[in-house]
Design a protein that fits this description.
This protein is α/β, with parallel strands linked by helices. The chain has a single domain (about 5-115), classed as Response regulator (Rossmann fold, 3-Layer(aba) Sandwich), CATH 3.40.50. The protein has helices spanning about 10-25, 35-45, 60-70, 85-95, 105-115, and strands at about 5, 25-30, 50, 75-80, 100. The protein has a five-stranded parallel sheet with strand order 2-1-3-4-5, with helices on both faces. The protein is globular, with a radius of gyration of 12 Å. The relative contact order is 0.18.
Amino acid sequence: MATVLVVDDSDFMRVRCRQLLVGEGFQVLEAGNGQEAVEKYREHRPDVVMMDITMPVLDGISAVKEIRKVDPQARIVMCSALGQQAMVLEAVKAGARDFIVKPFEPDRVVATLRKVLV
């Protein structure tokens, strides 16, 4: 069973993602900002990270860079709202493997995570 670290400053989004992913057989960890994500990554080494781009304390792109310093093989999928294409490209350059656009389509989320895990 794969472990997913869901990183989003919105409690609602984390709860929604947790419900979807647990229902699909994933274990889920949560972080509310990029700094917390880096700490949880170091501690738990999840199989994949689902990371929001815009967050307080440490944004998603900076968090990707920090996690990749800890583990250059880290599997990270960025989550962005429509209109954040430039930030998504920056995140991919920083080491993210894929992205998902909000609002989420549940099937797309699961398919993307499974693809990145292969």
